[in-house]
């Protein structure tokens, strides 16, 4: 059986199994795959796990630059999307249309619109699955350009027929997608979401390609999949995910839950406010300080291009955690004094604090605590702050940010992270995510 076929078998099996226990209109759960895991269709067997991790570090800086560009750009008829299209780190399986067609895409908290490639193609990139044909879906409907839905999307405009709504995204790496704004049925496992607004891309190009055929938008905007679940199906506007360690050789998956299944509760839960800011796609938190053991470093009021409130973005699509230089330098200097192992250079030249060690346990790494507003102290274990980047080389996975501070996905490993859009709260709970 070809590798791609094996992947789809596992993906569909895990998705249907997960949702079978969490279906219904109150909430449901399905699987997440890291793009570099052995079960992922994007897994490149010619790359070592170290090479794959280094590539994810590089994508972190590219993504950060694009986030900054989106935060500071002026809206135009064709806006820059907040993400680099192939920079997302986790994949999710859903179905579109009637009859349903499988759609493997990047699940991304930095994007709102869910879109896939559609026939007829004026320009399409290669994908392993058949391209979605809207003419074969009995539930597919174009969105009118005079509708509130069309006007709610900054990148929309009237199509050539002057009736239907068209959209256009250009990305930071010159990739693009143009097409029709439409509604169709989305199915996730046993859960059905009728009349969901999607993008049907007829002209797409750039760095896309391979297996994924688009993006699943999990941002905070009105057209994100999470927000639409609330308005269409009465599912509470909340979701949570649990990200497992993904730089091992194990075939493990994470999970993502919606609605009531996404409630994060228990004695160890800490919560912090989601700060309303523009654009509403991103999830802004307030980072007050970082501690290394008992040494505490306060976040400066000018720690980023943003204000003191909502001064850091939590993002599933960025691997590294990016901190302003003043805060980062304090953390690094303290770690350098505490960790007694031999300092070495990062072979890739990306990370600044590295040691000669075979495994994390050899370094006696102290707990690093991220102090968010609302007394939400998130204790980061060594697996959240250091990673093996080569044989006998382990590096700190925090890096200096230029303008945008980001709490990345390595820092979120083995936490259940809950986004409650209704109550504007984000919660962390230490959990074994496998």
Automatic annotation (TrEMBL):
Belongs to the peptidase A1 family. Keywords: Aspartyl protease, Glycoprotein, Hydrolase, Protease, Secreted, Signal. It comes from the Eukaryota. It comes from Cucumis melo var. makuwa. GO terms for molecular function: aspartic-type endopeptidase activity. Transmembrane segments: none annotated. Residues 90-429 form the Peptidase A1 domain. This is Aspartic protease. PANTHER family: ASPARTIC PROTEINASE CDR1-LIKE (PTHR47967:SF128), OS07G0603500 PROTEIN-RELATED (PTHR47967). GO terms for cellular component: extracellular region. Gene3D superfamilies: Acid Proteases. Its main location: secreted. It is found in: Secreted. It holds the Pfam family TAXi_C. The keyword Cell inner membrane does not apply. Residues 1-20 form the signal peptide. One of its GO terms (biological process) is proteolysis.
């Amino acid at each position: 059986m070809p590798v791609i076929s094996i992947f789809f078998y596992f993906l569909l099996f895990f998705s249907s199994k997960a949702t079978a226990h969490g279906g219904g209109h109150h909430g449901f759960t399905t699987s997440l795959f890291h793009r570099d895991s052995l079960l992922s269709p994007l897994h490149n067997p010619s790359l070592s796990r170290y090479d794959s991790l280094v590539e994810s570090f590089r994508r972190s800086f590219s993504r950060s630059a694009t986030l900054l560009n989106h935060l500071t750009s002026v809206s135009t008829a064709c806006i820059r999307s907040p993400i680099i299209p192939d920079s997302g780190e986790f994949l999710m399986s859903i179905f579109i249309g009637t009859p349903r067609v499988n759609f493997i895409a990047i699940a991304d908290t930095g994007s709102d619109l869910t879109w896939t490639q559609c026939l007829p193609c004026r320009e399409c990139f290669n994908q392993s699955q058949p391209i979605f044909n809207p003419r074969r879906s009995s539930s597919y409907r174009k969105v009118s350009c005079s509708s509130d839905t069309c006007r709610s999307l900054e990148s929309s405009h009237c199509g050539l027929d002057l009736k239907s709504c068209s959209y256009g995204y250009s990305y930071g790496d010159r990739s693009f997608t143009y097409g029709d704004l439409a509604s169709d049925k989305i199915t996730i496992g046993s859960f059905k979401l009728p009349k969901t607004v999607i993008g049907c891309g007829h002209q797409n190009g750039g760095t896309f390609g391979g297996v994924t055929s688009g993006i699943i938008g999990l941002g905070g905007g009105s057209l994100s999949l999470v927000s639409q679940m609330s308005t269409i199906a009465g599912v509470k506007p909340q979701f949570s995910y649990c990200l497992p360690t993904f730089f091992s050789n194990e075939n493990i998956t994470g999970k993502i839950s919606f609605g009531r299944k996404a409630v994060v509760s228990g004695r160890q839960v800490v919560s912090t406010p989601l700060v309303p800011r523009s654009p509403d796609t991103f999830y802004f938190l307030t980072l007050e300080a970082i501690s290394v053991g008992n040494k505490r470093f306060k976040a400066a009021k000018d720690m980023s291009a943003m204000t003191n409130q909502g001064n850091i973005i939590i993002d599933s699509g960025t691997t590294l955690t990016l901190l302003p230089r003043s805060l980062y330098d304090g953390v690094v200097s303290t770690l350098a004094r505490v960790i007694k192992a031999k300092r070495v250079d990062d072979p890739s030249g990306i990370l600044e604090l590295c040691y000669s060690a075979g495994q994390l346990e050899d370094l006696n790494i102290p707990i690093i605590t991220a102090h968010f507003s609302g007394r939400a102290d998130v204790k980061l274990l060594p697996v959240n702050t250091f990673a093996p980047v080569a044989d006998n080389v382990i590096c700190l996975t925090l890096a200096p940010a230029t303008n945008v501070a980001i709490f990345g996905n390595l820092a979120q490993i083995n936490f259940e992270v809950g986004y409650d859009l209704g109550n504007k709260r984000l919660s962390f709970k230490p959990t074994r995510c496998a």
